[in-house]
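Q: My hope is that you can spare some time for a protein that puzzles me. Underneath my words sits a plain record pairing an amino acid chain with its backbone structure tokens. Those tokens are not coordinates but codes from a learned vocabulary of shapes. Thank you; the sequence and its tokens follow:
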Amino acid sequence: MEDARREHREGWGMSSASVTRVVYPTSVDDVQAALKQARDNSWTVAFWGGGRSYGDAALNESNLLLDFSGMNRVIDFDPDSGEVVVEPGVTLVQLERFGLPKGFWPPVVSGTMFTTMGGCISANVHGKNNFKYGPWGDHVVRFTLVLTTGEVLEVDRESHADLFHHVIGGFGLLGVLVSITVKLKRVHSGRLSVLPSLAEDLDEMFRQFERFNDSEFDYVVGWIDAFAGGISLGRGQIHAARYVEENEDPEGKHLVGLEHQQLPDRFFVFIPKSWLWWLARPWAFRWGMQLINSVRFWFMKFAGHHEPRLETHTAFNHLLDFVPNWKWFYTPGGLIQYQFFLPKEVARPIIRQVLELCRSVKLESWLVVMKRHRADDFPLSHAVDGYSFAMDFPVTDKNRGELYRLTERFNELVVEAGGRFYFAKDSVVTSDAWRKSLGDEVVGRFLALKAKYDPDEILGGNLYRRVIKPLKGEVKLLEPKLPELEPAPVPEPEAIPVEEPAAKEELVEAEEPQAEAPPEAEPDSDDAAKTDAGEAS
């Protein structure tokens, strides 16, 4: 492993950045050497996977950052059980390309295919199917963890159960993941059956979500026009999707190859999609985005398709990758995403209040995504039995002060309603809000584990220093207590014969497609180019 070198890194939203020392481990030995180097130099350590955390979760100003892009191999695979062993730098796109030709698909996928498995486990990432299949943690069998002392532990639900339940969702604050065993889902086709529907207001949006939640559908996601007010407040579109049954889609059995799961690289046949953010850049202001959201809604109402259709797994799940570099649409100041999770009993009035607050200060979100969730048994989890609401806001010199005051008000509403926050998207949650959202008992047990496994606080970057470290001494440390909640059973379709793969297979690191150079500038475009609803994980 080469010596650490100084690099400029920024969160995916481009509104948080730092200069840090970076190393690129390729083995467990490299990880142990990096931890020793950190101890010897009194550095803290944070981790970089796919760089898809919006805020400061993967930043570590003036300290050490482990970039896992070189630990991206599939180590082992059992075609009978669907269990696969991977290194932390394996991306979702690698896992999808590995599994789908063999008849398997990741049980949880985020809005982008470029998140890594280390990041998915550390953040306990969810997808559009959380209400039915839970987060990634529900599908982890075991993992290998390197402690700050260099000790290597094999961790599962029975062995070191306290670590198992707190490393998942613990953002790398207790140890370093170096291998992860997860169970993939067997599928019958390279496509999903997708049903779009329209909601004229927020009440109808909730009614449709609950209808889909109690149906055969496996995925549900909603897009909301945050600019609409009055009787149209909360209007938008819902997409529900389900896995197809065996023999329901005979053609789909032949669409599991990589060539059928590629996102198109052209818009209207001849326009490179890598140019779309640049072409839409003139509309990157409040009235422009109000027009785009309005046009999108009315187009879907009168010209959109409202009948079931078949769509590839990639096309449905990864709309955040539909327009390359779309985040550049938000330059020069970047964006923050504020995502909160609310119990189902209070979600509707709080979301209504949030939308009205945004309109009252003329800071409407440019992209809003809503999803349904279930509770899980990971103490640091963001999920509750209810809903999530994700809002993208541009950050400018002019709106920065008002925007951050608005998010402070959001924090208060979420905490008062018994809601949760999601560090993978966060830039603004305070120590006090995070503490109140989880409760002193959960925070105290986590801090006790932190003191036990990382007493010198070697593990922790900007996020840890901003939110968690200030709580030391304020919250009583408690002995770890395993959750009593059993994971909900995960539906599993009947197996179908698939081509027998080799027992072991190694992957070359999947490279993110290089965007074609636009005529000039350097911003992005929203999913508004696509007429169907978008998703932010």
In short: The longest helix spans residues 286-302. The chain has a mean pLDDT of 90. The chain has 14 helices and 21 strands. The two ends are 33 Å apart (CA to CA).
